[in-house]
Amino acid sequence: MLGKNTFRLAALLLSMLLVLSTALVGCGSPSKEQKTNETPKQSDTDKTESTPKQGKPVEITYWFPHGNSRDKNALEKAVDIFNKANPDIKVTAEFVGASGSGQGITDKLTTAINGGSPPDVVLFDRFMVSQWASGGLFEDLTDLAQANGVTKDMFYDFAIKEASYKDRIYAMPFDTDCRVLYYNKKMFKEAGLDPEKPPLTIAELDEYAEKLTKKEGNRYKVIGFIPWLSQGWLYTWGWAFGGQFQDQSGKITANHPDIVKALEWETTYAKKYDIEAITNFSSASGGDINPFSAGMVAMMISGPWEIAGFKEFKDLDYGVSYIPTPTGSNFNSWAGGWCYVIPKGTKNKEASFKFAKFMSVEEGARIYGEDTVHFMSYKDLNDKFTWVKNEPKAKIFLELFPKSYCRPAISKGQLLWDELATATDNALHGKGTPKELLDKVTEKVNKELGF
Hints:
- The protein is an alpha/beta fold.
- It has 20 helices and 15 strands.
- The protein has a 6-stranded mixed beta sheet. A 5-stranded mixed beta sheet has the order 8-9-10-7-11.
- Strand 8 (214-216) and strand 9 form a beta hairpin.
- It is globular, with a radius of gyration of 31 Å.
């Protein structure tokens, strides 16, 4: 049984609780009007700054180096569509110089990354990805690709190889191309050649080149073929002759016997047609004039971009064919193209990848390929383009993509390119034998690679 003192104590405690609860009501959460007039606590302010405010979009800076009106318009059109479809992300496109070794966008991008303020997404020359990734300049996209349903088999094999480094994905492949033989049908007819039967073997190519060449005195009026013109790089002929530029261990094999044979064959043209006379002839055509469309060269190695450009030459009757090989079989080509990378240090990696995916395998890729008459690295798109369906000459490229090589995906890709170009030029001018020159290339690049 409780005593009187116990009841008095309980009453006292109850009175104290009532007073305390009244005081707490006075210090409770402010009303909406009070919230508007009060300054948030420091912790609330910090939280607001670290996350987007009430629907404020994540801002993405996108650099691209394509300045011609057709490409630029297509890229900006795709950005506008992306922004409308993704109100939580705002992409700002910015044209930044031109890509290349030591100039334009590459210099600016290096400075931006090293300075800690890189753009979020960059349209980048794909064959340089391994070199930049090896230097820690690009974000590894492997996990993001997997999380977003992007798999390697969505792209042509050569494209994903160039976009990867040490089996990790560092880029989303964008557009692509490969090389073929362009030949002037009208000139074929005039030379007594069947315009529907282009050369398939190296021997036929040599024979046709001689028949198509026209000379007045000591000056050439037309040259049938110049192996190193346009896209006739040593890569073109090295693979056509059956050579390989890299072995299974990763070592560069620029002195592969078949690559040596390819360069030896090129030097026969330099001797037969006189390298100086050819150089003077090429210079006379002017840097902005395509010698093939101008009727100065009857055959030329080049890529699919020529198709759109040649449409303005109404009298140009031409065909496209395989790059000739010694056997007239096992035709192949090599491919290049661009890709989307996310520079190291980007603060909005997931939003950046969403945009890169849109441009590579979604609507952005479709818009660019259709509007610019480009093939895309995403395999499922190309045969759906209207221009491809309406252009018979597009068929050979679709056939060759699965048979095309890419330049070795190494950390010294630019060095290999430069050394091969120098070796070719020296061989053509008689400054060393092809074997000696390619031995030096192989040794130098492998040393840089650590072999």
